[in-house]
Amino acid sequence: MISEFSLIDRFFKRQIVNKPVTLGIGDDCALLSIPQGYELAITTDSMVEKIHFFADCDPYDLGYKLLAVNLSDLASMGAKPLAVTLALTLPKVDESWLTQFAAGFFTLAELYQIDLIGGDTTSGPLTLTVQALGLVPKGQALRRSAAKVGDLICVTGTLGDAGLGLRIKQGYHCLQPDVALKRFNRPDPQIAFGQALLGAANACIDISDGLAGDLRHILEQSQVGASIDWEALPLSVEVLRFIEDTGDWHMPLTAGDDYELCFTVSLDKADAICFPYTKIGVIEAELGLRLNKLGNIQPFEVKGFEHFSK
Ligand code: ADP
Ligand code: MG
Q1: Which listed ligand is nearest to 26 at the C-alpha?
Q2: Which of 272, 254, 28, 49 is nearest to 162 (CA)?
Q3: What is the pLDDT of residues 161-208, one digit of tens each?
Q4: How far apart are the first and last CA of the chain?
Q5: How many Å lie between the centroid of ligand 2 and the Cα of residue 28?
Q6: CA dihedral angle for residue 190, residue 252, residue 284, residue 76, rounded to 10 degrees
Q7: Is the pTM of this model over 0.90?
C-alpha cells in the first residue's frame, strides 16, 4: 500500500511555474509573495460525494470540475489565478482513480499556469476541497455589492446547459446530449472574461446556483432590485428544445453549475467590454427581482440551493 507521502509526491507534486510562489509542497506551509499593487483573492469550495457529484462520477471530470468551480470564483472577482491547495479525503487509495483525478485536475491547472502549493490528505468519506488564490489589482476586485441603479445586467455564454446535462444524467432523453454533458462535467471558468471586466463592470458573480439565486445575491448586497427579460436569455438549441418538451421554462433561471458570469455595467461602459456577452435586464431602485415574459411582468421568487434548508 502506497504511503500518504509517496502518494503526494507521485500524484500531486509538480514543478512550480509562478514567481510569487516562493515555496510549494513539502513544508508545513507554502509561501507566496504578493506583488506590489495587487491584492490576494482567496476562495474555497468543497465537493462532497452524493451532494455535488454522483458516486459513479468519472474521476477525471471530478478533478477538472473541482478546480474549475474554484477558478470560477476567482474569475467573478476579476482575479488572475495563481495557486491552489488541495484537501483530499479518500475512502481508500485507488491508484487508477488518483491517476485519472490528477489528470483532470492538472489539465486545467496547466492550461491556466496554476501551481498546486499544498494541501492535506486524510481517509474518510470522499470529500474534495480546493482553496484557490489569485491576484487582482488593488481596489479593483468586482464585488457583489457594487451594482448601481440603471446598470445593464449581462451574462456570458448560454444558460441552463449544465442543468440540462444534469437532467440527461437523471434520464431525460436529449437528441444531442454532448454539449450539455460537457458543460455539466467540465465547466469552463470565465477567467479571461473576469479580468476583462475590471474597470468596466460594477458588480459580478459567477452562476453556480442558477441565475435567479445568484443575481439575488448581487441585488441584496447592492440594495437594489432588477428586471430581467426572459426572451433575452441566451439559450442553446438543446435547452430551447428541452423547454418545448417539458414546459419547464424556469430551468435556465434556476439550474446551477453553468459557471458563466453575471455582471452589471453602466450604459457608458458596456461597449468597452471586448468579449461577447448578452444583456438580459436592468438594475432598478425597486427592491426584488422581476421577470418580464412576453410583456407580463411578475416577481420571481425562486432561491438558490441551500445546504441546510429542508
Ligand atoms: P502537515 O502535517 O504539516 O499538515 P502534511 O504531512 O499533511 O503536512 O503534508 C505534507 C506536505 O504535503 C505539505 O506541504 C502539504 O501541504 C502537502 N500536501 C498534503 N496533501 C496534499 C495534497 N492532497 N495535495 C497537495 N499537497 C498536499
Ligand atoms: Mg505541519
Answers
A1: 1
A2: 254
A3: 999 999 999 999 999 999 999 999 999 999 999 999 999 999 999 999
A4: 41
A5: 4
A6: -20
A7: yes
